[in-house]
Amino acid sequence: MTRIVVLAGGVGGARFLRGVREEARRRFPDGSGGTTAAIAAIVNTGDDAWLAGLRITPDLDSIMYTLAGVNDEQRGWGRLGESERVSAELREYGVGWPWFTLGDLDLGTHIARTSWLRDGLRLSAAVERLTRRWDLGGVRLLPATDDEVETHVRVRDGDVDRELHFQEWWTRYRAALPARAFVQRGVEAAQPAPGVLDAIASADAILLAPSNPVVSIGTVLGIPGLRQAVTGASAPIVGVSPIIGGAVVRGMADACLAAIGVETSAAAVAEHYGRRGRGGLLDGWLVDDRDAESMAAVAASEIAVSSLPLLMRDADTSAAIAAAALDLAGVHR
């Protein structure tokens, strides 16, 4: 059995995982429309928060909804066909964040998760229960950690330095307040969730989704022991650039990169990740055709590099990206 591990977060991670699943069905068919490959997604939990008494896990939920085919493709988050009556009521009571709207169907997920957490389940066990409802096509979702590790942002707001939860900086302020640093509260005491280290150790390929390198992939790798497990694995590590034509596709990842002094370019993100064996991560790197001029700089770092269109428009284009990543990792039919 071929085992594929994907480090992921956000919309880019969700769409890439959908492509990995589609390519796995084509490359390793099981004869009934599925795949013989095992796909494990290790998902960022740094965006998580307590809100109105509920535990919210945006990246895990976005990926679950996308793989289940019930996501709102236009908005890029939440459930398809949502209503927002409960959020409107909460605003009237002054509860929660008025700039962070939760749909009524989505709230059902948060209530179920929070109920199980209050009963004593760890996050990974709650995720397993949630995903039983949906057909995810054989993809297993693993939170990077069961511990509460939330990303905060140190910003300069006028003449005042303050620290915001990442969701407030990202959703309320749209990353307009210049970030000075990102802080993962609670990360020092965190441990990888059950199944995470085993999945990495047994992988035939480890893929870095085109997710935010700083607050998605960076937060996953910031869990103590996780980066060491990834770099020490026998599997090749191939990343997909989140930069297309010198710009981010959606969101404000460029604001995150600027905060840590990294240029918004495919070559600069590859340099940020670094070459495995030289203190970095990558064995291979995929860049968009429009960034092909960056290939020489990446290759000079002795990272194998290939280019193709990286815009994930549909199942076929997403599967083609996954296929290129698997090929670069040496995982063939």
At a glance:
The chain has 13 helices and 14 strands. It is an alpha/beta fold and 333 residues long.
What would the keywords be for this entry?
333 residues; alpha/beta; Rossmann fold; 2 domains; seven-stranded parallel beta sheet; three-stranded antiparallel beta sheet; 13 helices
Shape descriptor = globular
Question: If classified by CATH, what would the architecture of the largest domain be?
Answer: 3-Layer(aba) Sandwich
Domain count: the total is 2
Order of SSEs: EHEEEHHHHEEEHEHEHHEEEHHEHEH
Mean pLDDT: 95
CATH topology of the largest domain: Rossmann fold
Which value, in Å, is the CA radius of gyration? 19 Å
Give a description of the structure.
- Helix 12 (295-300) links the parallel strand 13 (284-287) and strand 14.
- The longest helix has 18 residues, at 10-27.
- Strands 5-2-1-9-10-13-14 form a 7-stranded parallel sheet, sandwiched between helices.
- Helix content is 37%, strand content 19%.
- It contains 13 helices and 14 strands.
- The protein has 2 domains: 3-66 and 123-147 and 189-250 and 265-328, Rossmann fold, CATH 3.40.50.10680; 150-188, no CATH class.
- By secondary structure, the protein is of the alpha/beta class.
Give me the secondary-structure topology.
Blueprint (H helix, E strand, L loop, with lengths): L2 E6 L1 H18 L10 E6 L5 E3 L2 E3 L1 H11 L16 H9 L10 H15 L4 H10 L6 E5 L6 E8 L2 E6 H7 L6 E7 L10 H6 L3 E4 L8 H6 L3 H6 L5 E4 L2 E2 L2 E2 L4 H7 L6 H8 L10 E4 L7 H6 L3 E4 L7 H14 L5
Parallel strand pairs: 1-2, 1-9, 2-5, 9-10, 10-13, 13-14
Antiparallel strand pairs: 3-4, 6-7, 6-8, 11-12
